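Lab notebook page, bench 4
Experiment: in silico fold of construct C2
Operator: M.H.
Input chain length: 494 residues
Purpose: comparison with the prior construct
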Amino acid sequence: MSPLGLVLLVLGWSAAVWAGASLICRMKPAPKLAQAIWRGAALVMLAPFAASLFLPGLPARFEAQLAELPLMEPLTVMPAEGAAAASPAQALNLPDAATLILGVIAAGWAVRFLLWGISQVRLQRLKARAMRTNRPIGHWAEAVGLSRTPRVHVIPRGAPFLAGILKRSVYVPAALINGTGAQQVIVHELVHLKRGDLMTRPLERLIADVFWFSPFAWWIRGQLDFWREAVVDEETVELTGDRIAYARTLASAARVSRDEAVLPVAAFILRKKGTLKMRLNQLLTEKQRPRRLGLVMAAALVCAAPLALAQGMLIKGAAAAPGAEISYSHAVLDKARLTSAFGLRKHPITGEMKSHGGVDLADAKGVPVYAPAAGAITFAAEKGAYGHLVEMQAGGDTVLRFAQLDAMKVKAGDVVKPGDVIGTLGESGQATGPHLHFEVWRGGIAVDPQAEEGLVLADDLFVMSSSGGKVPVPPEPPVPPVPPQEPTEGGTEG
């Protein structure tokens, strides 16, 4: 699947998940159930990508000569020493759309990571300015169910929050510490600690960091933040026993508190406009228990699960499929000698003049043969005069064939990348010596591998070695062109 297709899939899927969760929440479930719904929405949004890690991919159809299946990569060929330098137009290679999209997505992740780092610095600075207070809260910690009582610190300004991994502390702004609602603020943070929100909040917010380009991911994250606080509001009211007083505390805290910018903690007062009003309505409005909510949630899960699994298989299968274009970036052999070019030639075994559908590259038996481009192995078996033959779908309608192999290191269905070993050079089938018979097919027609840009150049064949050296091969006498015919077996001329 192309990067653009993946982005569109994320946008569409996140929109569907957000819309489904929003419709269910219109039935006004209890805060804990609403939080569970949005947590489920976040998991469902991630489900196709998690499923693609272990589910088989949907089979892709390839227009292959012998078989069909998944992905692979390239071969670099250098011109002769005296060859003309590439023109400026050839030297300037602009990135394609897929590369640009991947670059933008990676840049977004880098920005999100940078903002997280900045927020951590701000948090540490704020904590450094905090002053410890000896306010007794042990009885509240015991009422909440905590085995250890956290410390209470006073910060100059901002909203109350909970922070710390090994040493948990409650941070309360100076404007609230001596007010009548201070104990309710502290109990609120203790409930956060008891519920494990210090650990779950960063995980819940990852959905918008990973899918930062989807507005629906941000809306899901906003709902998770809201319902996390709404659940804690309900539990705090149950502990303190005064719903009206707690609502007043929320309102007064909103007036005197100002959140520190971009802190990686859950603040007592959420920054989003309208959130305070929503929390007060949630606290003070009498609600009826919705009917058939469980049935609706079950139906939504039944519908979402197969869709998520199907998309996971689509992602897996599309990721394995070769792209429409092919580029060569790795040598087929470390070094080689051209013994037979493409076109009309005298057959080395029968002596007849026949069309040669590929090129023959001679080297020692057993040397590795590499995939020159990203692609999928569509055939790997014995085939008549070809001997051990590996066929590879390498982008669009381009098919590469590697024949006369001694051993095959891949099987049909394998996905390979540039530089992967697909076999070893040999003389299986009809051959007069160790060599690789190499063919390039496009749209069902055999083409001259030496005419492939980046694979073989001009009339001379140069195969790059892994150390950067090259082996020039003298050109053979020109051969009259003939119409393409059925591919024939390769061979060496001695």
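Observations: The chain has two domains: 61-93+324-494, 98-213+246-271. Residues 61-93+324-494 form a domain with the Glucose Permease (Domain IIA) fold (CATH 2.70.70.10).
Next step: discuss at group meeting.
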